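Summary of Year 1 activities. Much of the first year was spent building the evaluation harness for sequence design. The harness presents a backbone, in tokenized form, and records the residue chosen at every position. We chose the following record to illustrate the format because it has been used consistently in internal testing since the harness was completed.
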């Protein structure tokens, strides 16, 4: 057993799957659940994700606490937890942006910031809520930890071990580098999917377009089914890196528009060929 008591704040897909995986591995004793929705906590208990629902005071007495909630809520939740943290308690998170989370945690935790291990599991789906949780979500998936210079070494080691026990491949990155990378490979694609679906939905004849949409549209826009609240917070907390990626993407779209406008088949073929080769190479590295 790695920790006797684990508290999950946010018992949906990410937090619930973490709890399930560790329960099945026998890595935790009791799993506590905390959050703002009594109904979701009740469902999480019925599904076996948690053993009981608790308040902030009880959650703070856990050996390890995972925050699996919209990144915009990190600061306020940590402020409620901070007065109740028992000595040696470890706090970690699963937020998709890291620099803002580190800043919020440092402000909320003060001298206890050394007990905080920033993290980001690179796994998920467009589904959300306790009913979406599954024990194998993290099998073979990457988890990025962004420890700070003053992060407690044994806290980092414990969080790493918990994720590895859940099946994940753990890596570390600088928080700013993390945000720059994920602005390009995660945050921008989500915004693009949301934008396309919204643009069609706003058309007077949008229903006709959706009626004829098929597999390609479904694949490209799958992530537009993700939590709007979560992605609002990600866009706001990683706005600088995301703006850079949006500008770069818009420049590429302008290049494509020009090629289409001028009927420049060679330019289009070059872009499409480079993109296909890059994607095939990426797929090969994922499968190897």
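For this record, the design step produced the sequence shown next.
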């Amino acid at each position: 057993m790695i920790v006797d008591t684990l508290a999950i704040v946010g018992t949906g897909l990410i937090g619930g799957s973490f709890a399930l995986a560790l329960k099945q591995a026998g890595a935790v004793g009791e799993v506590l659940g905390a959050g703002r929705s009594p109904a979701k906590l009740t469902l999480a208990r019925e599904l076996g994700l948690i053993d009981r629902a608790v308040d902030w005071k009880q959650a703070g007495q856990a050996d390890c606490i995972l925050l699996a909630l919209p990144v915009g809520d990190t600061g306020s939740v940590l402020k409620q937890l901070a007065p109740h943290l028992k000595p040696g308690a470890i706090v970690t998170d699963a937020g998709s942006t890291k620099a803002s989370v580190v800043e919020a945690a440092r402000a909320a935790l003060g001298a206890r910031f050394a007990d905080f291990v920033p993290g980001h599991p690179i796994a998920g789906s467009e589904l959300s809520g306790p009913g979406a949780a599954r024990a194998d979500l993290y099998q073979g998936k990457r988890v990025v930890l962004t420890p700070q210079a003053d992060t407690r070494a044994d806290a980092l080691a414990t969080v790493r071990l918990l994720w590895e026990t859940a099946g994940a491949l753990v890596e570390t990155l600088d928080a700013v580098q993390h945000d720059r990378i994920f602005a390009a490979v995660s945050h921008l694609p989500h915004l693009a999917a949301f934008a396309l679906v919204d643009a069609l939905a706003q058309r007077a004849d949008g229903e006709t377009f959706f009626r004829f949409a098929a597999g390609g549209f479904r694949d490209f826009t799958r992530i537009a089914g993700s939590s709007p609240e979560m992605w609002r917070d990600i866009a706001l907390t990683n706005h600088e890196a995301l703006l850079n990626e949006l500008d770069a993407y818009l420049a590429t779209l302008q290049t494509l528009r020009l090629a289409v406008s001028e009927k420049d088949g060679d330019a289009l073929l070059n872009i499409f060929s480079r993109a296909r080769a890059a994607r095939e190479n990426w797929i090969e590295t994922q499968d190897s």
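The mean pLDDT is 94. Quantitative recovery figures across the full test set are reported in Table 2.
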